[in-house]
Structure formats: C-alpha cells, structure tokens
Amino acid sequence: VAVYKRALELNHARKREGDPLAQTTIDSYTRHLAPSTKPGYTGPDARFQNDLPARVAAVRFRLFDGNLAAARADAQYALDGIPGGRDDPDALLAAAEVKVAESPPQLAEAVTLLQSARARDPRNVAVGALLSEVLVRQGKRDEGVAALRDTAKLLTAVDSDYALLADRLLDVGEQERSA
Question: S-S: 121 plus which of 42, 70, 89, 112, CB 3.0-4.6 Å?
C-alpha cells in the first residue's frame, strides 16, 4: 500500500507539472516506480530511483506482467545499485522470485538468495515458503520441510501466516504420497 501511495503521489506531481505522460494505470505506476538507473538522472521521478521498496514493487509487478527482462534488471539494480539492497530481505526475495521465473529456473541461485534473506529475517513467511518450494523442486524434500518448520517455530502467534506454513507442509506431504 505504501508503495502504491508513493506512486500516486508521483502521478499527482506529474499532473501538476503538466507531464503528458501522467496516467492513472498500473503500467504507469510501474514505469514511475522504477525510473532510469542512469547516473545523473534528474527526471521528475528521480526521487524514486533509489527507493528500495518501490523498486521491489516494480520487480514484482513486472514479473506479474510477464516482463522478465525488466524484472531482472530492476532486481539486479535493487541488489547492487541501491545502498542496503543486498541486506534487505524483500529485495533478496524479489531477486529469488526472478531466478525461479527464469527459463530454465535458476534454482541454485534462488536458494542462495533465499538463504541470505532468511538469515536477515528468519520470521519472513514468504521467504520460508519459497525456500521450501525451491528446495523441494531441487529434490531436497527434507530440507524444504525443515525450512517450513523452522520458520513456523519462530512465529509468535497462530495466525494466517502459521496456517499458510501448515498448509505448505501438508502440500509437501501430499506430493510425496502421490509420487
């Protein structure tokens, strides 16, 4: 929500400036959330250039939109071009999502990114779930189950996150029985 709020602020700023490119579509938001990575860029959306949450949101939308090349470029910039990118679990998760979406999937690289994200935020349910999925896809079922269990043990409440992890554990068990 915060990222889309920033996109709306930018869109309204562009309208005030009379920018003919100002639109209200999600595609417009994505263009503005991931501005140029060229040194010295001074466009109206330059303030978002090094905004890590905005860049991560752009990666995810571009994956959703099927634009893998742009998602890959934004993920790489989030990690290497923005200070703190390699230490941010969400940026690492987004980069791993890109690796999984590649054809063929780059699962070993995704595991490395996910393990790094997990080391920084062990309670991150999305990281634990994707790490488990990737490990299972690599044929490392026991490690995948352990990743889910370790994440679940760190949760402080039995809530929707806990239920998601329990559901994933059941899914892994059912995959084994049906194989």
Answer: 89
The Cα–Cα gap between 95 and 122 comes to 17
Q: How far apart are CA 64 and CA 71, in angstroms?
A: 9
State residue 42 phi and psi, 5-degree precision: -130, 20
Using the 8-state DSSP alphabet, how is residue 99 labeled? H
pLDDT at residue 159, as a whole number: 67
pLDDT in the model for residue 22? 46
Contact assessment for residue 114 and residue 131, using Cβ atoms and an 8 Å cutoff? yes
Stretch 157-176: mean pLDDT:
69
Residue of higher predicted confidence among 46 and 82: 82
Q: What angle do CA 8, 14, 15 make, to 5 degrees?
A: 90
- Residue 107 and residue 35: Cα distance in Å, rounded? 29
Q: How far apart are CA 117 and CA 119, in angstroms?
A: 5
CA dist., res. 172 & res. 136, Å (int): 8
